[in-house]
Amino acid sequence: MIPVVSLGEIDSTSREAARRAAAGDTGPVWLHAEAQTAGRGRSDRVWDSPRGNLFATLLVPFEGAVGTAALRSFTACLAVARVLDTLTGARERVTLKWPNDALLDGRKVAGVLLEAGEVKRQRWLSIGIGINLAHAPETARWPTICVADVRDTPAPEPLAVLDLLGDALAEEERHLREGGFAVTRARWIARAARLGQQIEARLPQETLAGRFDGIAGDGALLLGMADGQRRVAAADIHFPDVTIQKAEADHAVGD
């Protein structure tokens, strides 16, 4: 059983994981915050972090090949999906958006942030996970929702959800360890949002539009275009029919 350290209100569980790793403590340990004053998402975007939602980071030593660290985004997202299945009782309403988001009724409900480093030849990996349980902070990047929006009962307690999440992530890690990424990939694709449909991959210098064909063996997105299939290693994914709210601040929820 991986221990859980509850930290009250801090800047960020991911930042705390990096500080602990720099001091030589690479876990394994779950770091949990009741609230974050400087929560971060992907691309260093702001992650709004009100009390009542889940903010947790798993810090672990990492022994695998450097290139395989990113694959933990898929195991983490699958674990989040399983937890949401339990909390909502509506598996068919929970989907996964490449590369690191979980959607509920097509709205963003959770996200994953991976970070890695090395201290004195010891590599470490942190898996930050945020789930909107009681609140759905507005974002300029994607419509949001929280678990409480689809339940007749109050939002679940974050630490109780973290117990479920720890068990689910351990099970997904077992699938990856025993079956390789091919098993994880198949499990993720089975829950993928907009598989076989038109999406947009927004890169810094261009926007690519095409059919979402799934993910490659290294986790890259496969985009079917008029001139053939293209691999996309990193991008912001947009669904053409989703209306994005406009806001001055570029806030994100697990982005």
Account of the 3D structure:
By secondary structure, the chain is an alpha+beta fold. It has two domains: 4-192, 2-Layer Sandwich (BirA Bifunctional Protein, domain 2), CATH 3.30.930.10; 198-238, SH3 type barrels (Roll), CATH 2.30.30. It is built from four helices and 16 strands. The protein has helices spanning 13-22, 72-88, 158-179, 181-189, and strands at 4-6, 9-10, 29-33, 35-36, 46-47, 54-61, 94-97, 101-104, 107-119, 122-131, 198-202, 207-215, 221-225, 228-232, 236-238, 251-252. The longest helix has 22 residues, at 158-179. The protein is globular, with a radius of gyration of 17 Å. Mean pLDDT is 91; it is low at 246-255.
What's the structural blueprint in terms of helices and strands?
Blueprint: E1 4-6, E2 9-10, H1 13-22, E3 29-33, E4 35-36, E5 46-47, E6 54-61, H2 72-88, E7 94-97, E8 101-104, E9 107-119, E10 122-131, H3 158-179, H4 181-189, E11 198-202, E12 207-215, E13 221-225, E14 228-232, E15 236-238, E16 251-252
Parallel strand pairs: 1-3, 2-4, 5-16
Antiparallel strand pairs: 3-6, 6-10, 7-8, 8-9, 9-10, 11-12, 11-15, 12-13, 13-14
